[in-house]
Amino acid sequence: MSPTTTPQVLPVPSATEIVDRSPDRAVIRSAAAHEYRPHVDGLRAIAVIGVILFHAFPSRMAGGFIGVDIFFVISGYLITTIILSNLEREKFSIAEFYGKRIRRIFPALLVVLLFCASAGWLVLLRDEYRQLGKHLVGGTSFVQNFVLWGESGYFDSGHEAKPLLHLWSLAVEEQYYIFWPLLLSYAWTHRWRFTVVNGVIIAMSFGISVWLASRDPVAAFYSPLSRFWELMVGGSLAYIALRRPELIARHGNVLCALGAGLLLSGFLLINHERPFPGFWALLPTMGTFLVIAAGSGAWINRTLLSSRPFVTCGLISYPLYLWHWPLLSFAHLVWPDNGHLTKIAVVLVSVLLAWLTHRYVERTIRWHRSANRVALLLSLGLALMLASGVAIKNALIQPRIDAVNLATRTGWDFLASRTPDGQVRDGIYALHDDRKSTTLFLGDSHVAQYAERIYDDEARNASRNGAIFAVAAACPPIAHVFNHDLPADSECWSVRREALEQAANSRITTVVIGGYWSYYFNTAAYYVVSGRREVSLATPEGRAAAFAELDREIRELQAQHKRVYVLLDNPIGDPFDPHVFLARIGRFDPSQAEQRVKIDGLQQSVRKELIALAKRDHALIIDPDADLCVDEACIRVTGKWSALYEDRSHLNPDWIVKNAAYIDPSL
User: In order of start, what are the domains of the chain with their CATH numbers?
Assistant: First the structure.
């Protein structure tokens, strides 16, 4: 999100290529550089509206997130304008530049962060509040993009539970604000050509963006290295407007129409399935470039983007960006089933708060007479907020709702501790592989969650089998079943293939096959290759074909003299997730958590088919329901209100280690 709201205009001199430094021309350039161009505020309005619609109604506005890319170009253009204009007049000061950035960015940010810390204390659960503290640290130190990058993974909580998720883009811009002024000032001093410096950075950053977009989408999304080119595109516009104004001075209507077409195409064509940013990001970045370049006289800019509603929205776009997502996030946490009317009301409240913040906080502080003192106080305020985040993250400050004992770790942590870098990843893990015989556990995270108990059980009893966990997140343990959202070279398929190859080893005497069964049969993304056709597992035909593949897999393992277990899934769903079923408003009612829950019809039908298949094949069955349910009504808490689950589908690792004895016979 662009933190700059005072518009600047196009013409700025190159820091090294201006030879005419006459006072009159310098004055003219300075005046031009600070001329107000309302259509830039109109563009901000388009950007923030797109982001808000995407966050509130993602299925209706799948490409709205490119509003952030529009902001990147605007910020690059404005910041480069300011820097080069001041360098040309020999009035550029790093201290003054950062002081202005502090007075522009910090006031609204501090207000929103204070609100989030307070609202979080009121409505968040213990683990959520600690995560909020972590994100407060990331947001106040402007490294939130790296924090979120490191959190990405299967056990990472949903984005709705992260009120400060949106600060990743502000972090990227702040990193740019640190890097670009210093480099540009250095280039001015050493008479480097702007076109070379800017062009090299664009080429390198864009190349990284394209390369990462198809190989590591999370890194491509959050890394500044794959994002800086978008800001540099805006910087290019500032240079072109001065050095080659003839390129954009004419045909403003054509440029604007073409730019608007690119922006509209981006909103309509881009979605989460596209490799992004990469080549697809050219639509919003070049569209923004052309619309700004067209100037205030272009018909679209003059009549639409410069109109009062768009300009007003653009002026409050920064606080509006800051406010809208925390409010939507907290609303989702408090009312998980909130509908369109609730979201519309939340958006309207965010608009009101944005206007109040702009009117009574931003304008008051930004133009205060004691500029240096204000910047110092704002910096101290942000430092205090950072310290508060550290305290919350380390549980020195506990939330109001702390009556239920939640999971203190995830089921993946144990296996992650066995990787060289301690990062969560799919793979094959051997536990006590010095044993003469071994049990192979094949599946996804619903199998991986038992790893620590298996390890402890083996350690206590040397006569037990060793264990190999071949696990991949959201990966069905059935051959010829795939996911449209995963690439052909996904770890999912390679782990599954290698595991079945290893199963032929005589040391492996037992194979346990388990997974998030009902999930795979409830989404169109998963399909089975039957003959030459792809059949969705969500259809009766696809479901039957997948069970036929599982039947064949079990029989092939048995033909290799393996003892085969089918691990049924534990009950799943939002009613089992303490983050969903616990009331967040008012007093905590323990009896609410003690109520048993019926599992839904899909889980029941899949469960019955798996049991029937296992019996036909004379495979053994591991059934968690025997310990968790009575007459198909299942518990959600144990003991004195300890949550049985860590989320909607994974059991609490502490409970598994102490109580999941049903898994032990597989050893």
Answer: 40-393 (no CATH), 413-570+600-625 (3.40.50)
CA distance linking residue 545 with residue 548, whole number of Å: 5
Contact 487, 416 (CB under 8 A): no
Q: How many CA atoms lie within 13 A of 415 on its CB side?
A: 30
Among 97, 105, 65, which Cα is nearest to 227's? 65
DSSP single-letter state for residue 158: P
> How far apart, in Å, are the Cα atoms of 509 and each of 435, 464, 553, 623?
12, 12, 15, 21
- Residue 530 CB contacts under 8 Å (≥ 6 apart), including other chains: 480, 541, 542, 545
Tell me if 299 sits within 8 A of 235, measured CB to CB.
no
Strands across the sheet with 533-536, in order? 481-483, 526-530, 533-536
Q: Tell me the β-bridge partners of 514.
A: 567
Whole-number pLDDT of residue 489: 65
The vertex-621 CA angle with 615 and 623, nearest 5°, equals: 130
Nearest to 101 by CA among 167, 178, 212: 178
Q: What is the DSSP letter of 397?
A: S
Non-local (6+) Cβ contacts of 578 within 8 A are: 125, 404, 406, 593, 636, 637, 643, 645
Give the pLDDT of residue 289: 97
Name the pTM for this structure.
0.84
Cα–chain-centroid distance for residue 46? Answer: 22
Tokens of 633: 């009504």
Q: Which of 116, 150, 151 is nearest to 136 (CA)?
A: 116
Structure tokens at 353: 């708060």
pLDDT digits (tens, 9 = 90+) for 44-89: 999 999 999 999 999 899 999 999 999 999 999 999 999 988 888 8
Task: Tell me how far apart the alpha carbons of residues 572 and 611 are, in angstroms, rounded to a whole number.
Answer: 18
Bridge partners of 622? 567
Q: What percent of the chain has pLDDT over 70?
A: 93
Asked if 277 contacts 209 with a C-beta cutoff of 8 angstroms, the reply is yes
d(CA 220, CA 428): 26
Helix (H) / strand (E) element for 638: namely strand 637-638
What mean pLDDT comes out for the span 521-550? 89
pLDDT exceeds 50 at position 11: no
Structure tokens at 248: 């954009």
- Decide: residue 626, CB within 10 A, 0-12 exposed, 13-18 middle, 19+ buried: exposed
Q: Please, where are the H alpha helices in 417-529?
A: 445-448, 451-460, 491-502, 517-520
The token pair that represents 581 in the structure block: 């079923």
Q: What is the CA radius of gyration of the chain?
A: 29
